[in-house]
Amino acid sequence: MAEKKIIKQQSDGTKKTVTKSTAAKTTTSSKKTAKVAVTEADKSKATGLRVGAIILWVLALACELVAIMNVTGKWYLPDLIPTLPDNYLLYLIIFLVLDLIFLVIGSQLWKKANHLDPCSRENKFRFFIQNQLGAIVAILCFVPFIIVLFTSKNSKLNTKEKWIAAAVAIVALLIGVFSSIDYHPVSEEDVNQAISLDQAQVYVTAFGHCFHLDENCQSLHNTGELIAIEASEEATTAAREATRQGYRLCKFCERELEQALEQVPDVEILPVEFGDEYVFAY
Question: Do residues 153 and 91 share a domain?
Protein backbone atom coordinates (compact mmCIF):
# COMPACT_ATOMS: atom_id res chain seq x y z
CA MET A 1 0.00 0.00 0.00
CA ALA A 2 1.37 3.40 -0.99
CA GLU A 3 2.33 5.74 1.84
CA LYS A 4 -0.31 8.37 2.39
CA LYS A 5 0.33 12.07 2.68
CA ILE A 6 -1.36 13.48 5.78
CA ILE A 7 -2.37 17.14 6.00
CA LYS A 8 -3.20 18.47 9.45
CA GLN A 9 -6.21 20.76 9.68
CA GLN A 10 -5.45 23.88 11.70
CA SER A 11 -7.92 25.49 14.11
CA ASP A 12 -8.41 28.41 11.70
CA GLY A 13 -9.43 26.05 8.89
CA THR A 14 -6.09 26.13 7.08
CA LYS A 15 -4.09 22.96 6.43
CA LYS A 16 -0.48 22.07 7.13
CA THR A 17 1.44 19.07 5.80
CA VAL A 18 2.92 16.87 8.55
CA THR A 19 5.28 13.94 8.42
CA LYS A 20 4.21 10.35 8.94
CA SER A 21 6.00 10.15 12.29
CA THR A 22 4.42 13.37 13.56
CA ALA A 23 0.96 12.10 12.75
CA ALA A 24 1.66 8.79 14.46
CA LYS A 25 2.46 10.52 17.75
CA THR A 26 -1.08 11.78 18.09
CA THR A 27 -2.92 8.47 18.20
CA THR A 28 -4.13 8.84 21.80
CA SER A 29 -5.78 11.82 23.38
CA SER A 30 -4.24 13.63 26.34
CA LYS A 31 -7.35 15.73 27.04
CA LYS A 32 -8.78 15.26 30.52
CA THR A 33 -11.71 17.62 30.24
CA ALA A 34 -15.22 16.30 30.71
CA LYS A 35 -16.71 15.14 27.43
CA VAL A 36 -20.05 16.70 26.53
CA ALA A 37 -21.76 15.72 23.28
CA VAL A 38 -23.53 19.02 22.61
CA THR A 39 -22.22 21.90 24.69
CA GLU A 40 -24.14 25.02 25.63
CA ALA A 41 -21.87 26.92 23.25
CA ASP A 42 -22.90 24.56 20.43
CA LYS A 43 -26.58 25.06 21.22
CA SER A 44 -26.19 28.82 21.45
CA LYS A 45 -24.33 29.00 18.14
CA ALA A 46 -26.87 26.68 16.50
CA THR A 47 -29.73 28.89 17.70
CA GLY A 48 -28.05 31.97 16.23
CA LEU A 49 -27.52 30.20 12.91
CA ARG A 50 -31.14 29.04 12.80
CA VAL A 51 -32.42 32.55 13.53
CA GLY A 52 -30.20 33.88 10.73
CA ALA A 53 -31.47 31.17 8.38
CA ILE A 54 -35.11 32.00 9.14
CA ILE A 55 -34.51 35.72 8.56
CA LEU A 56 -32.90 34.99 5.18
CA TRP A 57 -35.72 32.63 4.23
CA VAL A 58 -38.28 35.33 5.08
CA LEU A 59 -36.38 37.73 2.80
CA ALA A 60 -36.38 35.07 0.06
CA LEU A 61 -40.15 34.63 0.37
CA ALA A 62 -40.55 38.42 0.33
CA CYS A 63 -38.64 38.58 -2.95
CA GLU A 64 -40.97 35.93 -4.38
CA LEU A 65 -43.99 37.92 -3.23
CA VAL A 66 -42.66 41.05 -4.91
CA ALA A 67 -42.06 39.06 -8.11
CA ILE A 68 -45.64 37.76 -7.99
CA MET A 69 -47.01 41.27 -7.47
CA ASN A 70 -44.86 42.41 -10.38
CA VAL A 71 -46.34 39.72 -12.63
CA THR A 72 -49.91 40.67 -11.74
CA GLY A 73 -49.20 44.39 -12.10
CA LYS A 74 -50.04 45.20 -8.46
CA TRP A 75 -46.55 46.53 -7.75
CA TYR A 76 -44.05 47.88 -10.23
CA LEU A 77 -40.74 49.51 -9.30
CA PRO A 78 -40.58 52.09 -12.15
CA ASP A 79 -43.94 53.41 -10.99
CA LEU A 80 -42.21 54.43 -7.75
CA ILE A 81 -38.94 55.48 -9.38
CA PRO A 82 -39.68 56.80 -12.90
CA THR A 83 -35.99 57.00 -13.83
CA LEU A 84 -35.69 53.19 -13.84
CA PRO A 85 -36.04 51.34 -17.17
CA ASP A 86 -39.52 50.09 -18.01
CA ASN A 87 -38.97 46.31 -18.20
CA TYR A 88 -41.15 43.84 -16.30
CA LEU A 89 -38.97 40.84 -17.17
CA LEU A 90 -35.79 42.50 -15.92
CA TYR A 91 -37.23 43.08 -12.43
CA LEU A 92 -38.66 39.58 -12.29
CA ILE A 93 -35.22 38.10 -12.94
CA ILE A 94 -33.60 40.42 -10.37
CA PHE A 95 -36.05 39.41 -7.64
CA LEU A 96 -35.79 35.71 -8.53
CA VAL A 97 -31.99 35.89 -8.27
CA LEU A 98 -32.24 37.66 -4.91
CA ASP A 99 -34.74 35.01 -3.84
CA LEU A 100 -32.22 32.28 -4.71
CA ILE A 101 -29.31 34.01 -2.95
CA PHE A 102 -31.22 34.50 0.31
CA LEU A 103 -32.52 30.93 0.13
CA VAL A 104 -29.15 29.23 -0.44
CA ILE A 105 -27.31 31.20 2.25
CA GLY A 106 -30.10 30.53 4.73
CA SER A 107 -30.07 26.81 3.93
CA GLN A 108 -26.30 26.58 4.48
CA LEU A 109 -26.69 28.23 7.88
CA TRP A 110 -29.52 25.82 8.74
CA LYS A 111 -27.45 22.76 7.79
CA LYS A 112 -24.49 23.99 9.84
CA ALA A 113 -26.79 24.51 12.83
CA ASN A 114 -28.07 20.93 12.53
CA HIS A 115 -24.51 19.61 12.61
CA LEU A 116 -23.82 21.55 15.80
CA ASP A 117 -27.06 20.63 17.55
CA PRO A 118 -28.70 17.66 15.78
CA CYS A 119 -31.90 15.84 16.63
CA SER A 120 -32.42 12.13 17.19
CA ARG A 121 -33.17 9.62 14.44
CA GLU A 122 -35.80 7.97 16.65
CA ASN A 123 -38.48 10.38 15.44
CA LYS A 124 -38.01 9.86 11.70
CA PHE A 125 -40.52 12.52 10.67
CA ARG A 126 -38.93 15.24 12.81
CA PHE A 127 -35.45 14.15 11.73
CA PHE A 128 -36.44 14.46 8.07
CA ILE A 129 -38.20 17.82 8.45
CA GLN A 130 -35.43 19.40 10.52
CA ASN A 131 -32.65 18.32 8.17
CA GLN A 132 -34.46 18.90 4.87
CA LEU A 133 -36.34 22.07 5.81
CA GLY A 134 -34.17 24.08 3.43
CA ALA A 135 -35.35 22.02 0.45
CA ILE A 136 -38.99 22.47 1.54
CA VAL A 137 -38.49 26.24 1.78
CA ALA A 138 -36.88 26.19 -1.68
CA ILE A 139 -40.09 24.73 -3.12
CA LEU A 140 -42.14 27.42 -1.37
CA CYS A 141 -39.84 30.10 -2.75
CA PHE A 142 -40.40 29.32 -6.43
CA VAL A 143 -43.34 26.99 -7.12
CA PRO A 144 -46.07 29.54 -6.19
CA PHE A 145 -44.44 32.07 -8.52
CA ILE A 146 -44.42 29.58 -11.41
CA ILE A 147 -48.10 28.76 -10.80
CA VAL A 148 -49.12 32.44 -10.71
CA LEU A 149 -47.01 33.15 -13.79
CA PHE A 150 -49.08 30.79 -15.94
CA THR A 151 -52.49 31.25 -14.31
CA SER A 152 -52.65 35.02 -13.84
CA LYS A 153 -55.00 36.72 -16.29
CA ASN A 154 -53.57 40.15 -15.52
CA SER A 155 -49.97 39.30 -16.39
CA LYS A 156 -47.94 42.14 -17.87
CA LEU A 157 -45.71 39.71 -19.79
CA ASN A 158 -46.15 38.38 -23.30
CA THR A 159 -45.85 34.66 -24.05
CA LYS A 160 -42.12 34.78 -24.82
CA GLU A 161 -41.34 36.72 -21.64
CA LYS A 162 -43.43 34.28 -19.62
CA TRP A 163 -41.38 31.33 -20.83
CA ILE A 164 -38.12 33.17 -20.12
CA ALA A 165 -39.28 34.00 -16.59
CA ALA A 166 -40.47 30.41 -16.11
CA ALA A 167 -37.11 29.04 -17.27
CA VAL A 168 -35.26 31.30 -14.82
CA ALA A 169 -37.60 30.28 -11.98
CA ILE A 170 -37.27 26.56 -12.74
CA VAL A 171 -33.47 26.74 -12.87
CA ALA A 172 -33.46 28.71 -9.60
CA LEU A 173 -35.81 26.12 -8.09
CA LEU A 174 -33.52 23.23 -9.03
CA ILE A 175 -30.41 25.03 -7.75
CA GLY A 176 -32.21 25.97 -4.53
CA VAL A 177 -33.53 22.48 -3.83
CA PHE A 178 -30.34 20.56 -4.60
CA SER A 179 -28.13 23.01 -2.69
CA SER A 180 -30.48 22.99 0.32
CA ILE A 181 -30.74 19.21 0.72
CA ASP A 182 -28.59 17.82 3.53
CA TYR A 183 -27.28 14.69 1.82
CA HIS A 184 -25.43 13.48 4.92
CA PRO A 185 -27.40 14.65 7.98
CA VAL A 186 -25.86 14.18 11.41
CA SER A 187 -28.01 12.73 14.18
CA GLU A 188 -27.84 12.92 17.96
CA GLU A 189 -26.78 9.27 17.92
CA ASP A 190 -23.87 10.12 15.61
CA VAL A 191 -22.70 12.80 18.02
CA ASN A 192 -22.96 10.51 21.05
CA GLN A 193 -20.92 7.90 19.21
CA ALA A 194 -18.33 10.47 18.17
CA ILE A 195 -17.89 11.79 21.70
CA SER A 196 -17.17 8.26 22.94
CA LEU A 197 -14.30 7.78 20.48
CA ASP A 198 -11.33 8.96 22.52
CA GLN A 199 -8.97 9.41 19.60
CA ALA A 200 -6.51 12.24 19.09
CA GLN A 201 -7.19 12.60 15.38
CA VAL A 202 -9.41 11.24 12.63
CA TYR A 203 -8.98 11.39 8.88
CA VAL A 204 -11.09 12.79 6.06
CA THR A 205 -10.60 13.22 2.33
CA ALA A 206 -10.89 16.48 0.40
CA PHE A 207 -14.28 15.61 -1.13
CA GLY A 208 -15.56 12.84 1.15
CA HIS A 209 -18.39 13.01 3.66
CA CYS A 210 -17.11 10.44 6.21
CA PHE A 211 -14.36 10.53 8.80
CA HIS A 212 -12.09 7.55 9.36
CA LEU A 213 -10.50 6.25 12.56
CA ASP A 214 -7.64 4.56 10.72
CA GLU A 215 -5.61 6.06 7.89
CA ASN A 216 -5.41 2.54 6.44
CA CYS A 217 -9.19 2.06 6.29
CA GLN A 218 -10.10 -0.11 3.31
CA SER A 219 -12.24 2.66 1.84
CA LEU A 220 -9.07 4.80 1.64
CA HIS A 221 -7.12 2.19 -0.32
CA ASN A 222 -6.75 4.41 -3.39
CA THR A 223 -6.50 7.72 -1.51
CA GLY A 224 -3.06 9.28 -1.47
CA GLU A 225 -3.79 12.39 0.61
CA LEU A 226 -5.69 12.65 3.88
CA ILE A 227 -6.68 15.56 6.10
CA ALA A 228 -6.20 14.97 9.83
CA ILE A 229 -8.80 16.55 12.13
CA GLU A 230 -7.99 16.96 15.83
CA ALA A 231 -10.05 17.89 18.87
CA SER A 232 -10.68 21.61 19.35
CA GLU A 233 -11.70 23.96 22.15
CA GLU A 234 -15.34 23.43 21.17
CA ALA A 235 -15.08 19.65 20.66
CA THR A 236 -13.44 17.36 23.21
CA THR A 237 -12.67 14.61 20.71
CA ALA A 238 -11.46 14.60 17.12
CA ALA A 239 -14.50 12.59 16.06
CA ARG A 240 -16.86 15.20 17.57
CA GLU A 241 -15.01 17.96 15.73
CA ALA A 242 -15.50 15.98 12.52
CA THR A 243 -19.26 15.73 13.14
CA ARG A 244 -19.37 19.48 13.80
CA GLN A 245 -17.95 19.93 10.30
CA GLY A 246 -20.61 17.66 8.80
CA TYR A 247 -18.77 14.33 8.59
CA ARG A 248 -20.14 10.95 9.71
CA LEU A 249 -18.25 7.86 10.85
CA CYS A 250 -17.18 5.62 7.98
CA LYS A 251 -19.21 2.38 7.80
CA PHE A 252 -16.07 0.26 7.48
CA CYS A 253 -14.52 1.89 10.57
CA GLU A 254 -17.81 1.52 12.45
CA ARG A 255 -17.95 -2.19 11.58
CA GLU A 256 -14.37 -2.75 12.74
CA LEU A 257 -15.12 -0.85 15.94
CA GLU A 258 -18.16 -3.05 16.64
CA GLN A 259 -16.13 -6.20 15.97
CA ALA A 260 -13.40 -5.01 18.35
CA LEU A 261 -15.96 -4.36 21.10
CA GLU A 262 -17.48 -7.81 20.60
CA GLN A 263 -14.07 -9.39 21.20
CA VAL A 264 -13.78 -7.84 24.67
CA PRO A 265 -14.53 -10.72 27.11
CA ASP A 266 -17.36 -10.37 29.61
CA VAL A 267 -16.17 -10.07 33.20
CA GLU A 268 -18.09 -12.11 35.76
CA ILE A 269 -18.52 -10.49 39.17
CA LEU A 270 -18.90 -12.94 42.06
CA PRO A 271 -19.64 -12.17 45.74
CA VAL A 272 -16.99 -13.50 48.13
CA GLU A 273 -17.46 -13.72 51.91
CA PHE A 274 -14.87 -11.64 53.78
CA GLY A 275 -15.40 -11.72 57.53
CA ASP A 276 -18.92 -10.48 58.23
CA GLU A 277 -19.21 -8.75 54.86
CA TYR A 278 -19.31 -9.65 51.20
CA VAL A 279 -16.92 -8.19 48.65
CA PHE A 280 -17.04 -8.65 44.90
CA ALA A 281 -14.26 -10.50 43.10
CA TYR A 282 -13.66 -10.20 39.35
Answer: yes
